Amino acid sequence: MYELLYRRVLQHIPAETAHRLAFAAIRFAGAVPGLGAGMRRVLGPADPVLRVRTLGMDLPGPLGLAAGFDKDAEGVDGLTALGFAYVEVGTVTAQAQPGNPRPRMFRLPADRALVNRMGFNNHGAAAAAERLRRRVEGGRAGSRRRTAYVGVNIGKTKVVPEAEAVGDYVAGARRLAPYADYLVVNVSSPNTPGLRDLQAVERLRPLLAAVRQTLDEAPQAAQAGHAGAPEPRRVPLLVKIAPDLSDADVDAVADLALDLGLDGIIATNTTIARDGLRTDAAEVTELGAGGLSGAPLKERALEVIRRLHARVGDRLVLVAVGGIENADDAWERIRAGATLVQAYTGFIYGGPAWPRKVHREIARRARAAGYSSVAEAVGTSGRPGPGAHR
Ligand SMILES: Cc1cc2nc3c(=O)[nH]c(=O)nc-3n(C[C@H](O)[C@H](O)[C@H](O)COP(=O)(O)O)c2cc1C
Prior knowledge:
Blueprint: H1 2-8, H2 15-31, H3 35-43, E1 52-54, E2 57-59, E3 63-65, H4 76-81, E4 86-93, E5 105-108, E6 113-116, H5 125-137, E7 149-155, H6 165-176, E8 182-186, H7 201-217, E9 237-241, H8 247-259, E10 264-267, H9 281-287, E11 291-294, H10 298-312, E12 317-321, H11 327-336, E13 340-343, H12 345-350, H13 354-368
Parallel strand pairs: 3-4, 3-13, 4-7, 7-8, 8-9, 9-10, 10-12, 12-13
Antiparallel strand pairs: 1-2, 5-6, 6-11
Bound molecules: flavin mononucleotide (FMN).
């Protein structure tokens, strides 16, 4: 049905308009009392083999929605009702900003890809924090049942000079920490001038150290998703990196993350490369600058996860994103070392039934390989599964 809707309607309207329409429907479903919960019961991951305990969360499955879809934390309930185990909201910047002029999001259907130069359009950290606070406090009184886990991805406000980037990230982190199950420092989007330069270790070190310190000092307010009494907790911190880093730079970020006591790395963001596309080169050039996501990113994103896993083993939680289109891709990333996986473009092309389908098929693969939990498969590439010994 989604394929029909996509072919007849969605693909004929601008990509961002299609996104807004689809997201409005998802938000509506999440907001109708009883509907979201009912959908979550039917579509949400329920197979115990999928359960993943990581970063202080007890997730029903490994697949989450990548940052950029729900920039302002407006649709967490609707999105988890479709079957995502968690949602990474953002990128949120300390100050509200409009992003780049439209059009700024384009489909490359022949490549199962997107190009975007959104430029962190968002309502700012105060608005996102308020929305997340209301969500948590609006939960049924006394209910301690968690309905959704929320990662919060923060970035730099465009008008803030690069020399003041640390203070800007810290301001965002301070506002949002109380509502984040985990926090991500995004230094890898290609659409904010100079942002990716922050990935250089000498600039990344003070930034990550300052955000870590802010999280440690932040008031232990609500634990996101819980309507009960707040519990003291340490907010896990991750950094999200670009696929365009050299291998040496990937290693350097991994070493830094270990050195600073970070919890994990999210790999990868979109790429500025345009290699190997089927879409006509002139057409691609015409679209202009932006980050490329989806299938063309698959190979490099997998390579980065492999590299990170070889470097850090299980000392950091690796979150794989980039070109995950189906359960095979997700399973390969898990076996390469990812504890969690995320997607954006695969969901756009796959439609609302996609998260459920991917989770179901990951469960099938895990069982077929003889694992009692997906977690047992993390980093097992090149090793026979337990089933091989039975
Ligand atoms: C339209 C669009 C907007 C995005 N916005 C953000 C963002 O605000 N912050 C971020 O960290 N990543 C953002 N991303 C990157 C995704 O989170 C993801 O890292 C990337 O698209 C690769 O995954 P995919 O191939 O599954 O899409 C965006 C991606 C797309 C397509």
